[in-house]
Write a structure and sequence with these properties.
single chain, 4 helices, 0% strand, DNA binding, Whib, protein-disulfide reductase [NAD(P)H] activity
Length: 122
């Protein structure tokens, strides 16, 4: 498993959704705001009470909200997929929802394309 930038470990760069200048300057995670914050903010300690978890996740999301590479971080976590922690402003549960929606959308688009091919052939 790859580690988040807030653990100060090098991770594989994800192709940037933004301007190509970032790719020339270095991997996206070098600009991550979370590199300067406490890693514990982004990952749950064992047996964390629900209220504490929600407060911690909201604090992590506030850090993500001001990050210039939030989109790249989120895409990294969705492509891996990262099973734990707050990445790109999303919790693990929120990322599972996004991934399920993407899969459903891809399936719907595939079915629509197939229906269109059948109608054109018929």
């Amino acid at each position: 498993m790859l580690h988040p930038p807030h653990q100060s470990v090098q991770v594989a760069a994800v192709p940037s959704q933004r301007a190509p200048a970032r790719d020339q300057a270095g991997p996206w995670h070098t600009e991550a705001v979370c590199r300067r914050d406490e890693a514990g903010l982004f990952f749950a300690p064992s047996k964390e009470p629900t209220a504490a978890r929600l407060a911690r996740e909201e604090a992590a999301k506030r850090v993500c909200a001001r990050c210039p590479v939030m989109v790249e971080c989120r895409e990294h976590a969705l492509l891996q997929p990262e099973p734990y922690g707050v990445w790109g402003g999303l919790t693990a549960a929120e990322r599972r929802v996004v991934l399920a929606r993407r899969r459903r959308r891809e399936m719907e688009l595939g079915q629509a394309a197939q229906a269109g091919r059948i109608a054109a052939a018929g």
